[in-house]
Amino acid sequence: MDLNYFYTFKEVAKWGSYTKTGEELGYAQSSVTTQIKKLEEYYRIKLFERVGRKMRLTQSGEELYYYVEKILSLLDEAEERISKESNLRGTLRVGTVESLAAYFITPYIKQLKEKHPELKILLESGLCPNLKEGTLEGKFDVSILMDRYVEHPELTTIPIRQEKLVMIAPPGHRLGSHQVMDLRELESETLILTEEGCSYRVLLEQLLKEENVQAKSVISFSSLEAIKQCVADDLGLAIIPEISVRKEIDNGKVIQLPFHHEKIKVYTQVVYQRKKWLTPPLTQLISSITH
């Protein structure tokens, strides 16, 4: 069914004349007549009857007019909402890592939600390899990663900043007074690490392997809050993003050790499919995060 027929039908009902409708819409009278006839054939009803010199809706025509008004009103509303990029509906699927979900992305999500209250935003956290794969498979519209710079032929990558990683220890730890920290010091320490596959855990493990250093023991947690608490309780040392532990360092719950290494370098970055059509809300989110 051609939706233009509904606009023609509505105009005929308004003017009561095929000729006047044709003038208003820029159609020949025969074209208006043909469109109304096609509607009558489609619904198998008579839509208009002649009363004097005017065309008047039949009872069936009045019933159809009720629904046509609703349909055209919704179409006009959709066009207005989309063209003005205001209060959009739909679903936006965002993947990110726990630290960015908790300490970085929420203000941007809140801002987008305030602008488009009827937009459904699904935020899911996970490991960077899974997020990249999910983006390639279309599970996520966009992912915000903390990883080595992502280079993939099917993905667009927008780097935001290099993310600072810090090694933390409980207050009073013996390494806290050091100006420089030797990797060999970790051989007598327990490392409290994020789950396997986490980008900065992978980089740390690669570094220790290259330097032939093995920690005394390793404890793994998937929760940053659990890791920070374990460090505060003197169960070991941890390396995590500074943004996720700045508060605890400032209030003395944990201390930052003088651990710096060029090989452990990660970036907060936005990735999405190179061929993806960017909807207005997605464009707005990417723009707000990257500027």
The fold-level CATH name of the largest domain is: D-Maltodextrin-Binding Protein, domain 2
The fourth-level CATH homologous superfamily of the largest domain is Periplasmic binding protein-like II
Please state how the strands of the largest beta sheet are arranged side by side: 4-3-5-12-6
Main sheet properties: 5 strands, mixed
Strand composition percent: 15-25%
The whole-angstrom Rg is 31 Å
Helix/strand-derived class? alpha/beta
Number of domains: 3
Describe the protein in words.
This protein is an alpha/beta fold. It folds into three domains: 4-84, Arc Repressor Mutant, subunit A (Orthogonal Bundle), CATH 1.10.10.10; 90-162 and 267-290, D-Maltodextrin-Binding Protein, domain 2 (3-Layer(aba) Sandwich), CATH 3.40.190.10; 164-265, D-Maltodextrin-Binding Protein, domain 2 (3-Layer(aba) Sandwich). Helix content is 43%, strand content 22%. It has eleven helices and twelve strands. It has helices at 4-15, 18-25, 29-43, 59-84, 98-103, 106-115, 128-137, 199-210, 224-232, 246-250, 280-290; strands at 48-51, 54-57, 90-96, 119-125, 142-147, 155-163, 165-169, 190-193, 217-220, 238-241, 255-256, 266-273. Strand 8 (190-193), helix 8 and strand 9 (217-220) form a beta-alpha-beta unit. The longest helix is centred in the N-terminal third of the chain and has 26 residues, at 59-84. The radius of gyration is 31 Å and the shape is rod-shaped. The two termini are 45 Å apart.
